[in-house]
Amino acid sequence: MQVPSPSAREAASMYGTAVAVFLVILVAALQGSAPPESPFPYRIPLDPEGTLELSWNVSYTRELVHFQLLVRELKAGVLFGMSDRGQLEDADLAVLWTDGDKAYFGDAWSDQRGQLHLDPQQDYQLLRAQRTPAGLSLLFKRPFSTCDPRDYLIEDGTVHLVYGILEQPFASLEAINTSALQTGLQRVQLLKPDISVPALPPDTRTMEVRAPDVLVPGQETTYWCYVTELPGGFSRHHIVMYEPIVTEGNEALVHHMEVFQCAAELESVPQFSGPCDSKMKPARLNHCRHVLAAWALGAKAFYYPEEAGLAFGGAGSSRFLRLEVHYHNPLRMQGRRDSSGIRLYYTATLRRFDAGIMELGLVYTPVMAIPPQEEAFVLTGYCTDKCTQLALPPSGIHIFASQLHTHLTGRKVITVLARGGREREVVNRDDHYSPHFQEIRMLKKVVSVHPGDVLITSCTYNTGDRKLATVGGFGILEEMCVNYVHYYPQTQLELCKSSVDPGFLQKYFHLVNR
Ligand SMILES: *[C@@H]1O[C@H](CO)[C@@H](O)[C@H](O)[C@H]1NC(C)=O
Ligand SMILES: *[C@@H]1O[C@H](CO)[C@@H](O)[C@H](O)[C@H]1NC(C)=O
């Protein structure tokens, strides 16, 4: 980051103040008037208590995002913005503050120490500030890209939103001490793909998979496991859509949910509803790993393309399903009850193609290793031309969604498609990837893969806090580099990954140790 000379900084600050004064808010006496009708398809609570609620929409043609921030119990102001990994230092912020007399809104940035500065260029543009029965509602817009080197570039993939609550007036923006505020972060995909919703078949039926009346433990993290089964004689169906069902009032508590199907070989799976790490959990649940549906905070319904569906039921597939709900309870609230889950929409009229899931990336082996104390170490896995030549139908496959996966040190994941020795297109990329936010994402554009194509998946890791090498494996302290791609028509190829050849690795170490 470029540090301007003191005089430039002073000038910037003066200009910024003028802009802020110009934007002095008239908190109109509109108390009691109905809240305006919502043009925002997306909504998310920012803090665990839900006092800050963000709604937004995306205009791809104008390349900007409209944000509506609802502040339920306004004290003396609020900070909202974005940063690389959710820290309040080096963040790009919109700030609403008061000096006790007037209220101001401005576009600001924080330096490495968390000190705030007004931006010379005001890119968060306030459109409306209104008191509603629910609280203060701020409407502002922000372009994806601002050309201001200090601003955050809004890209596809994860965005770390940050917030802070101002409890008292401050004489100036610069006087705000961020380390003394109540702050936090929320991860979200801001730039959701703008794809049209496919029509559902007329005979669509629904099934709710949810754990009834869970008493959410008063601890920060709980993975709740619940077993349920399909009705007897349930024949083969296609899932064509699914959506979350979140118990009202628990929107900030339910972080993500997945529905898995158990292995077909299991004759039966015992009933269970409890923490996934409980000693009472039946061991057989470890064989329930075939993903049928996955949802994470901020995501909406998931639709299969009109020509494909995900098969379940019938011969050769298990009747048993496992629901996993991740509760994120940083305030350690006691006594909360929850019955969240996922509603599956399915049809007996099978669509033309079965959808499938293919795992791309690196084989989990100890030779997939990351040295300690590395800030950005890259490992790459290949789905080679030989594999795609052998396994894909002549007309190819079509990838429409993707779920990236690493363990704790993963920071970026990208899959690109190469053809004829050249990179052709990006299948999916997340430059702000977080292992704490894994959702199945619809691709903006379906990617067709033909026999002979190569799929290259690269993962970037940060092992700055580790003393020993990190190796590939299933353990949470071991690593993975995976992209689960959702595609049709389904093929026999479930895994298309590579690993480092131990022989070559030995030769390499022999060479470097010489
Ligand atoms: C987003 O919301 C703003 C503010 O209500 C509205 O003017 C705009 O038309 C909306 N844009 C889209 C793409 O929906
Ligand atoms: C900011 O707040 C922190 C924590 O309350 C305090 O230790 C620090 O001295 C404050 N910094 C300034 C410049 O006031």
Automatic annotation (TrEMBL):
<comment type="function">
    <text>Catalyzes the hydroxylation of dopamine to noradrenaline (also known as norepinephrine), and is thus vital for regulation of these neurotransmitters.</text>
</comment>
<keyword id="KW-0479">Metal-binding</keyword>
<dbReference type="InterPro" id="IPR036939">
    <property type="entry name" value="Cu2_ascorb_mOase_N_sf"/>
</dbReference>
<dbReference type="GO" id="GO:0005615">
    <property type="term" value="C:extracellular space"/>
</dbReference>
<keyword id="KW-0186">Copper</keyword>
<dbReference type="InterPro" id="IPR008977">
    <property type="entry name" value="PHM/PNGase_F_dom_sf"/>
</dbReference>
<dbReference type="InterPro" id="IPR000945">
    <property type="entry name" value="DBH-like"/>
</dbReference>
<keyword id="KW-0735">Signal-anchor</keyword>
<dbReference type="GO" id="GO:0042584">
    <property type="term" value="C:chromaffin granule membrane"/>
</dbReference>
<keyword id="KW-0968">Cytoplasmic vesicle</keyword>
<dbReference type="InterPro" id="IPR028460">
    <property type="entry name" value="Tbh/DBH"/>
</dbReference>
<keyword id="KW-0812">Transmembrane</keyword>
<keyword id="KW-0472">Membrane</keyword>
<dbReference type="InterPro" id="IPR045266">
    <property type="entry name" value="DOH_DOMON"/>
</dbReference>
<comment type="subunit">
    <text>Homotetramer; composed of two disulfide-linked dimers.</text>
</comment>
<keyword id="KW-0325">Glycoprotein</keyword>
<dbReference type="InterPro" id="IPR014784">
    <property type="entry name" value="Cu2_ascorb_mOase-like_C"/>
</dbReference>
<feature type="transmembrane region" description="Helical">
    <location>
        <begin position="12"/>
        <end position="30"/>
    </location>
</feature>
<keyword id="KW-1133">Transmembrane helix</keyword>
<comment type="similarity">
    <text>Belongs to the copper type II ascorbate-dependent monooxygenase family.</text>
</comment>
<dbReference type="GO" id="GO:0004500">
    <property type="term" value="F:dopamine beta-monooxygenase activity"/>
</dbReference>
<keyword id="KW-0127">Catecholamine biosynthesis</keyword>
<dbReference type="Pfam" id="PF01082">
    <property type="entry name" value="Cu2_monooxygen"/>
</dbReference>
<protein>
    <recommendedName>
        <fullName>Dopamine beta-hydroxylase</fullName>
        <ecNumber>1.14.17.1</ecNumber>
    </recommendedName>
</protein>
<dbReference type="InterPro" id="IPR020611">
    <property type="entry name" value="Cu2_ascorb_mOase_CS-1"/>
</dbReference>
<dbReference type="GO" id="GO:0005507">
    <property type="term" value="F:copper ion binding"/>
</dbReference>
<dbReference type="GO" id="GO:0042421">
    <property type="term" value="P:norepinephrine biosynthetic process"/>
</dbReference>
<dbReference type="Pfam" id="PF03712">
    <property type="entry name" value="Cu2_monoox_C"/>
</dbReference>
<dbReference type="InterPro" id="IPR014783">
    <property type="entry name" value="Cu2_ascorb_mOase_CS-2"/>
</dbReference>
<dbReference type="InterPro" id="IPR024548">
    <property type="entry name" value="Cu2_monoox_C"/>
</dbReference>
<dbReference type="GO" id="GO:0034466">
    <property type="term" value="C:chromaffin granule lumen"/>
</dbReference>
<dbReference type="GO" id="GO:0042420">
    <property type="term" value="P:dopamine catabolic process"/>
</dbReference>
<feature type="domain" description="DOMON">
    <location>
        <begin position="50"/>
        <end position="166"/>
    </location>
</feature>
<keyword id="KW-0560">Oxidoreductase</keyword>
<keyword id="KW-0847">Vitamin C</keyword>
<dbReference type="InterPro" id="IPR000323">
    <property type="entry name" value="Cu2_ascorb_mOase_N"/>
</dbReference>
<dbReference type="Pfam" id="PF03351">
    <property type="entry name" value="DOMON"/>
</dbReference>
<dbReference type="GO" id="GO:0031418">
    <property type="term" value="F:L-ascorbic acid binding"/>
</dbReference>
<dbReference type="InterPro" id="IPR005018">
    <property type="entry name" value="DOMON_domain"/>
</dbReference>
<comment type="pathway">
    <text>Catecholamine biosynthesis; (R)-noradrenaline biosynthesis; (R)-noradrenaline from dopamine: step 1/1.</text>
</comment>
<keyword id="KW-0503">Monooxygenase</keyword>
<dbReference type="GO" id="GO:0006589">
    <property type="term" value="P:octopamine biosynthetic process"/>
</dbReference>
